Amino acid sequence: MNLINDAWIPARRKNGEKIKIAPYQTTENFGMDKEVAELAAPRPDFNGALIQFLIGLLQTTCTPQNTGEWRKWLENPPSPEELKERFESVAFAFNLDGDGPRFMQESGLEKEKEKSLESIDKLIIDMPGEQTLKYNKDHFVKRGRIKQLCPCCLTMALITLQVNAPSGGQGHLTGLRGGGPMTTLVYGNTVWETIWLNILEESRFKELANIRKNKDEDKFPWLNNSRNSENRRKTTPQDVHPFHLFWAVPRRLFIIFEQCQQKTECDLCGEYTRQVVKQYYSKTRGIDYKGAWRHPLSPMYLKASNKKNNEPDMWLPVHQHENIGYKHWLGYVLNDDKRIPALVVSDIISNKMFTDFRLWAFGYDMDNMKARCWYEGKIPVVLANEKYRESFNNYILNTIKTAEKVASDIAWCIKEGLYDVKIEANKKKDFSFVKGRFWQETEPEFYKILNDLRNFVVKNSAKIPEEILKHWLRYLVKEAEELFDDVTQSGEFSAVDPGRVAKAWNKLKWKIDSDETKEILGLPVAPKLKKTKAQRKGV
């Protein structure tokens, strides 16, 4: 099976028809009812891996020279025949099976002595691991459900594992973005649009690694297995070509294919096939990625320096630990002091896009080897034109930071109302669910405010009237008070002290309507008058 020439990617046309396509068929029937509208893998994490595979393939073979060339293909994409011709230049590196180099696998691993034989369900990230099975903790994702996969599902599982690469115990390394990185993409109306909207121009892409490293094995590491870390070798951005960013292989694997006399069912997608996979070989000490990697699809956060270890400030990929919503505008759409968007997103906003779009964000919340949750969401991005964008973005920044403060205030005050926080154990109680509810319940109003802000900025090109900002603050206060009442009176907590709740309520009202909150939002604050000597003495 060759991943360039064969149809293996599950997709859905605009008319609802479900099909399998080869990568070059993403532009098939452009502008018609049978155009490929979306990916349709049997699992959401597979869809995330597939879109990154397709973006990587286009970036590797069709990097535009400039913005004009990029716009040309966005509006008039190449034919499937032209794409296939471009992809043929790398088809030799995309064989899934056979005697030569195999896609994202280590050929020759099957002959080594120190290797382990794994059941195929271990290739899927959220399947129960050894410790879970040993202590019978597979309550939600049950053991033994996946015993064999078809080649298509196997490919998607393989890409998903290599892209997300969670820690797998001693010697099993994470990827160049760490285990379960957050990915953010510009989301288009079709599969082709989504791919091409996330392609960088050549000059921009060359900044990400060492363009002088231009051998095939610098781009596709499975063509040469010498870069593993058995000899403690490290791999930095200076050691490889930028294309390596999309084709990293931190895990050492070799898939065992079996031919069946009769068609048999895949345990994941339910389709029938004569070729199945039940086991694979695995070995520790894959590629050990070190250094300041900047993946074009990853938002970044600033890790403060560690003076004890002489570590400087460093930008690292974001990992998600909560539901995705409008609070993630800071860092996913707009720069913050300690957060910056993915390169593809900032590039679109600053250089290419003049209309609203949606941001597709997804990623695993990993606790070492354990997948705690898969987070995914599509965030509407509202843009003002370039002339007014800076002013508009400043107002957005203030509205979100105000909501951040109110969310923290209400979570802490509810905790104080329900527990004696002087006790250390109570102080550490997790009330993040309160913040989650607050963000979710205030999201519709946030986008209404955004449209009001944009309309005023564009029409008036002047300072936003205080009434719009005051409306947002009044709304946040109302939602915070209602949430406080709901949580403290829900009956979920026993032995609630009414006096303590009342004291926490008063503290909440004072905190969320304070001068500090108004200053964050950009509202005027009455100057503080200095007390006279007599007033200070209480005369």
What does this structure look like?
- It is a single chain.
- With 539 residues, the chain is of the alpha+beta class.
- Helices cover 36% and strands 15% of the residues.
- It contains 17 helices and 12 strands.
- Strand 1 and strand 2 form a beta hairpin.
- Helix 11 (389-418) runs antiparallel to helix 16.
Characteristic terms for this protein:
single chain; 3-stranded antiparallel beta sheet; 539 residues; Topoisomerase I, Chain A, domain 4; 12 strands
| Unreliably modeled segments | 131-143
- Major sheet: arrangement of strands: 2-1-3
Secondary-structure element series? EEEHHHEHHEHHHEEEEHEHEEHHHHHHH
Please tally the β strands and state the result: 12
Major beta sheet summary? 3 strands, antiparallel
What Rg is obtained from the alpha carbons, in whole angstroms? 27 Å
The outline comes out as: globular
SSE order and pairing:
Layout: E1 9-13, E2 18-21, E3 36-39, H1 44-62, H2 67-75, H3 80-87, E4 116-119, H4 130-134, H5 151-164, E5 183-187, H6 191-196, H7 202-205, H8 216-219, E6 252-265, E7 272-283, E8 300-303, E9 314-317, H9 329-332, E10 339-340, H10 343-352, E11 357-367, E12 370-381, H11 389-418, H12 424-427, H13 432-460, H14 466-488, H15 498-512, H16 515-521, H17 533-536
Antiparallel strand pairs: 1-2, 1-3, 4-7, 5-11, 6-7, 8-9, 8-10, 11-12
Brief account:
The chain is an alpha+beta fold. It contains 17 helices and twelve strands.
